[in-house]
Specification:
This protein is α+β, with helices and mostly antiparallel strands. Strands 5, 6, 7, 8, 9, 10, 11, 12, 13, 14 and 15 form an eleven-stranded mixed sheet that branches. It has a four-stranded antiparallel sheet with strand order 1-2-3-4. A hairpin with a 4-residue loop joins strand 9 and strand 10.
Length: 362
């Protein structure tokens, strides 16, 4: 004989039973009442919910043709291990990641050839102007951040990105509440109604970027987004002339997890924006299924400058296409103390002058 089906309260999770006096299902823990048909429909919905399916075709990039890399050299930093690619005419340089000297390793080998590249649209002078504007007027910033010789060391570097395209079907279920209150001569009443809210639909994602370098912090690269992919062109080594290129050390397969997180978060945000008119809304289940998921390998232009101060490294980055700029600035405690005493002296002088004026008046 089949066992009795046990229903759990959608509101508090407690086991509920049939109340013969009400002819309804009732939760003994939160006193919520349910029609049997409502519970059956809710139970069928739970049983039909799907799991996430976030799979991609990660065959991105192509193999280099014979002779394509003849003029390219790999430079390796002895300090941080970073590998950067430049042309054979590039003079001795410092590492764009830690600012230490780099040495030539030899001819470029390995890796995949990028599918796309967004060429630099803003030159070095534009990057220096943005950095000067960023520090201008900030009296408490250490002097090294304003040193023009140091600012001149800002470097243009192509950062490797994996771009993920996919179509997505999604189903998301929320628990919503509506609250109604009223009162009579003796009591005030509050009624909370619970709703199961379902959203289903399809979305298309194009060029979801995940940077392929461990040396470039993900949050920093995401801060200078977005890039306009309509200006991307098929990769040619000529675009590397005069710039550096970071060799990816995170492949497309390893980047899937972050791509999934970005796709899932974006989907949930879009769906949540369609739920209105409730006192509260909580997501209870989410299913995102991808299809036609493919990856491309691209190089994005970034102007980069690392500054060392007090054993800390501060990174400034500018989108080489749009000019969007980010970077934190520290406070020099010695400068802060100096300006504190200057302002204190000014304040004291003003107060003294005010006191003299009072004495003259009276």
């Amino acid at each position: 004989m089949a066992g009795l089906q046990e229903y759990k309260c959608p509101c508090c999770g407690g086991a509920i039973a049939f109340d013969s006096s009400l002819q309804k299902m009732k939760c003994p823990y939160c006193d919520t009442e349910f029609e049997m048909e409502t519970l059956q429909s809710y139970d069928e919905q739970l049983n039909n919910e799907k799991e996430d399916d976030l799979t991609w075709d990660t065959n991105a990039g192509t193999s280099w043709m014979d002779g394509e890399t003849d003029g390219m050299r790999v430079y390796v930093c002895k300090s941080c291990g970073g590998e950067i690619v430049g042309d054979e005419n590039m003079a001795a340089t410092s590492c764009p990641f830690c600012d230490n000297p780099v040495v030539v390793m030899g001819n470029f080998t390995g890796s995949l050839k990028p599918d796309l590249v967004i060429p630099f649209k803003l030159d070095k002078e534009a990057a220096k102007a943005a950095l000067n504007k960023h520090v201008q007027g900030k009296k408490l910033v250490p002097k090294v951040f304003k040193d023009q010789k140091h600012i001149d060391e800002i470097k243009g570097i192509y950062v490797p990105f994996w771009l993920f395209d996919a179509e997505a079907d999604a189903d998301i279920r929320y628990r919503g509440t509506k609250v109604r209150s009223w009162s009579d001569s003796r009591y005030r009443y509050t009624e909370t109604s619970y709703y199961s809210i379902n959203r289903s639909g399809s979305l298309a994602f194009r060029a979801v970027p995940v940077d392929g370098s461990t040396k470039m912090p993900d949050d920093l690269m995401e801060s200078i987004e977005p890039y306009d992919l309509s200006q991307a062109v098929d990769f040619q080594t000529a675009y590397l002339a005069g710039y550096l290129a970071d060799k990816y050390d995170v492949d497309a397969e390893q980047s899937v997890e972050r791509a999934n997180a970005r796709v899932k978060t974006s989907t949930e945000q879009v769906f949540a924006n369609t739920v209105h008119g409730y006192a509260s809304v909580l997501p209870e289940s989410s299913s995102v299924r991808l299809y036609n998921g493919k990856a491309k390998y691209a190089l994005y232009p970034v102007w980069l400058l690392n500054t060392k101060w007090n054993n800390e490294t501060y990174t400034f980055a500018m989108n080489g296409q749009t000019g969007k700029f980010v970077g934190d600035l520290p406070v020099d405690k010695k400068e802060k103390s100096k300006w504190f005493w200057i302002y204190a002296a000014i304040g004291a002088a003003v107060a003294f002058g005010g006191a003299m004026l009072v004495n003259l008046l009276f």
